[in-house]
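REQUEST ID: PR-0412
SUBMITTED BY: lab tech R.K.
PRIORITY: routine
TASK: structure prediction, single protein chain
INPUT:
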Amino acid sequence: MDSLAPKSDVRVRGSSHIDFKTATTGVAAKAMRNEISRLVATVEDPATKKAFDTEMQSFFLFTRYLSERAKSQELDWDRIKSPADDQIVPYASLPSSTDPKNLNKLAVLKVNGGLGTSMGMTGAKSALEVKDDMTFLVLTVRQIEHLNTTHRVDVTLVLMTSFNTHEDTLRIIKKYANQQLRITTFNQFRY
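STATUS: complete
OUTPUT:
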C-alpha cells in the first residue's frame, strides 16, 4: 500500500550509519593524534617544537569536522528565511561621519594568499601588474597612503598571507618601509 505522505528525495542518515561513521572517525583520529605526537617529538629545538605542535593541532579541527559531518542531518531549506526589512539598514540611511579621526579606527584587510599560477606566475597574485606598471598591491598601498595623507590619519593595511605567499609578501612589502603606511601581515594556516 502506497503512503499518502509526499515522497522525498532527501535521505536521512540512520543511527547505525552515524554510529559507524563516528566509530571509524574516532579510530582514525586517535591514530592521527598518535602519529602527530611522534612527529612533534622528532623536533629538537624547543621553540620550533612548540610552534610545530601548535600548527599540528589544526588537524584536530578536521577530525571534529568529520565527527560532526557523520552526525549531521539534512538542512531544511524551508527554515531559511531572508531577514525582515526592519533588520536591514540601507547604506544611504547611515549617518555620515564628519570627523576624519574615526578613520584611525579603520584597518584594511586584504586576502593575499593566492598564487597566480593560472596566469603563469610563481608568486602572489598581488604582485601582478595590472595598470600603468602598478601591481594590485601598489594600487592598494597608494589608496591607503592617499587616505592617510589627505585626512592625517593612520589606517593600517593588514595582509593575510598563505603558506605559499608569506615569504614573497614579506620581501615585497620591504620597499614600503618609508611610506606613510603601516603594513601588518599574518599567515593563515596551511591546512
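NOTES: The longest strand covers residues 156-161.
REVIEWED BY: pending
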